[in-house]
UniProtKB/TrEMBL annotation:
Site (Transition state stabilizer): C173
Active site: D253
BP GO terms, sorted: L-methionine salvage from methylthioadenosine
Species annotation: Streptomyces longwoodensis
PANTHER family given in the database record: METHYLTHIORIBOSE-1-PHOSPHATE ISOMERASE
Gene that this sequence comes from: mtnA
Record HAMAP family: Salvage_MtnA
Catalysed reactions listed for this entry: 5-(methylsulfanyl)-alpha-D-ribose 1-phosphate = 5-(methylsulfanyl)-D-ribulose 1-phosphate
Protein's UniProt name: Methylthioribose-1-phosphate isomerase
Record function comment: Catalyzes the interconversion of methylthioribose-1-phosphate (MTR-1-P) into methylthioribulose-1-phosphate (MTRu-1-P).
Positions bound to substrate: R64, G65, A66, R98, Q212, N263, K264
EC number(s) reported in the record: 5.3.1.23
One GO molecular-function entry: translation initiation factor activity
Length: 377
C-alpha cells in the first residue's frame, strides 16, 4: 500500500531561514522569526523589536512548538534588557503568553535569572543585557545539541523495538527544525531513520484545526526528501487497522512528574489506537519539557483556543470571508470545543526519549532520576 504514495521530495535543508535568530542592526537589536502562520505558501520573516510583539507572535503561533518557545522566551527577555525595557514585566508577559508548554517559562526564567545575577553583580544595565543574551544563546545551542542526541537515542530505540528496519512511522503536529534550534524532537528521529535508510514511510497527520502537520511537517519532510504521506487525523484508525503503522513518534509540551504527556490535541487518541494495535507509542522531548512541579496529567493547564479556529478555515492561502478572518465552514454562531492539547497517561506510552537517554517503562521514579541527573552541576 505505502509505495503507491511515494513522494519525489526535494533534497533541500528543512528551511533556508532559521526559525529564530538574533540580529543587531544599527537601529537596535531585534529578534527575527520565520512566520510559521505563512508556511508553506511563503517564507516571510517577522521582526520583533520588543517583548510585546513577541508575545503576539507566540499567541498567534507565528513562533511555536515547545522547545522553540523556550528559546524565544529567553531571547524575548534579552530583547527587553537590551532595549532598556522593564525586564520583569516583559518576562511575566512572555511566560504567560501560552500556558501549556513548560519550556516557555523555563526559557524565560533562565534568562531572567541571568539578568538578575548580572545586575546584582555589576549593577551595569549593559553588562546585564549582555549576560541575558548569552543565556539565551546558550539555551539555543543546548537545544540544537539535544536534538542531535534525541535523534540518535530515538533511532536506536526504533531499531531495538522493530528489528528488520524499514520503519513506517506515524507522527502528529510539527516537531522538526521549525520548533527547535536544531532538527527537532520526534521529527528529528524520523529524519535520522531516513538518513540511515531505515524510514520506509512517514505518515503525517494533518493536525486540525491549525494544520501544523499539513502545513509544516509535510513542508519539512518534502524539503528533506523523505517518503511521506499526509492523512486527515480521522484516517489514522484505518491506517492502524490496515497494519501500516510500525511506530508512533510524537513530541511533548509538558511531561508531568507521573509521566503524563501533554501534546497537540489528537495525540491521546493515537496512543489509544497504538495500544489496541500493539504498536509502540514513543514520545520524544528534551529534558526542558519535564516538569517535576506538575504532579500529574490533571494538573496540566490545557490551553483553550478561539472557536473560530474550528468554525473557519483561516490558512493564509484561502480567501478571507468569515468573522474570524477565514472562510466559514459552520453556521454563524456555532460554538466550538477547541483545546490546543490533550494529555496521554503514562501507561499508554512505550517510552520517552530525551537527550539524556530513554525512559521505559515510564514511571515517576525513572523520570525523577533522569531529571535529577540532567540538573546536576
Ligand atoms: O500549538 P503548537 O503548534 O505550539 O503545538 C506544538 C506541539 O504540540 C508539538 O507537538 C510540541 O510542542 C512538541 S514540539 C517538539
Amino acid at each position: 500500500m505505502a509505495d503507491q504514495y511515494a513522494h519525489p521530495g526535494e533534497d533541500k535543508p528543512p528551511t533556508d531561514i532559521p526559525a529564530i535568530r538574533w540580529e543587531e542592526p544599527p537601529e537596535g537589536p531585534v529578534l527575527v522569526l520565520l512566520d510559521q502562520t505563512r508556511l508553506p505558501v511563503e517564507e516571510v520573516e517577522l521582526v520583533c523589536t520588543d517583548a510585546s510583539a513577541l508575545v503576539e507572535a507566540i499567541r498567534t503561533l507565528a513562533v511555536r512548538g515547545a522547545p522553540l518557545l523556550g528559546v524565544a522566551g529567553a531571547y524575548g527577555v534579552a530583547l527587553a534588557a537590551a532595549r532598556g525595557f522593564d525586564v520583569d514585566e516583559a518576562a511575566t508577559a512572555l511566560a504567560g503568553a501560552r500556558p501549556t508548554a513548560v519550556n516557555l517559562s523555563v526559557g524565560v526564567e533562565r534568562a531572567r535569572a541571568a539578568y538578575r545575577a548580572a545586575v546584582a553583580d555589576s549593577g551595569d544595565p549593559q553588562q546585564a543585557a549582555a549576560a541575558t543574551l548569552a543565556a539565551a544563546r546558550q539555551l539555543h545551542r543546548e537545544d540544537a545539541e539535544a536534538s542531535v542526541r534525541m535523534a540518535r537515542h530515538g533511532l536506536a530505540l526504533l531499531d531495538e523495538l522493530l528489528p528488520g528496519g524499514g520503519h513506517r512511522v506515524l507522527t502528529h503536529c510539527n516537531t522538526g527544525a521549525l520548533v527547535s534550534g536544531g532538527e527537532g524532537t520526534a521529527f528529528a528521529v524520523a529524519l535520522e531513520a531516513h538518513r540511515a535508510g531505515q524510514l520506509r514511510r512517514l505518515w503525517v497527520d494533518e493536525t486540525r484545526p491549525l494544520l501544523q502537520g499539513a502545513r509544516l511537517t509535510a513542508y519539512e519532510a518534502a524539503r528533506n526528501g523523505m517518503a511521506y504521506t499526509l492523512l486527515t487525523d480521522n484516517a489514522a484508525g484505518s491506517l492502524f487497522s490496515a497494519g501500516e503503522v510500525d511506530a508512533v513518534l510524537v513530541g511533548a509540551d509538558r511531561i508531568a512528574a507521573d509521566g503524563s504527556v501533554a501534546n497537540k490535541v489528537g495525540t491521546y487518541p493515537l496512543a489509544v489506537l497504538a495500544r489496541y494495535h500493539h504498536v509502540p507509542f514513543i514520545v520524544v522531548a528534551p529534558v526542558t519539557t519535564l516538569d517535576p512541579h506538575t504532579p500529574d496529567g490533571a494538573s496540566i493547564e490545557v490551553e483553550q483556543r478561539p472557536g473560530y479556529e474550528v468554525t473557519e478555515f483561516s490558512a493564509p492561502q484561502v480567501q478571507v470571508t468569515g468573522a474570524g478572518g477565514g472562510v466559514a465552514v459552520a453556521p454563524l454562531g456555532t460554538q466550538a470545543y477547541n483545546p490546543a492539547f490533550d494529555v496521554t497517561p503514562p501507561e499508554l506510552i512505550t517510552a520517552i526519549v530525551t537527550e539524556e537517554g530513554v525512559v521505559s517503562p515510564v514511571t515517576a521514579e525513572a523520570l525523577a532520576d533522569l531529571y535529577a541527573r540532567s540538573h546536576q552541576v
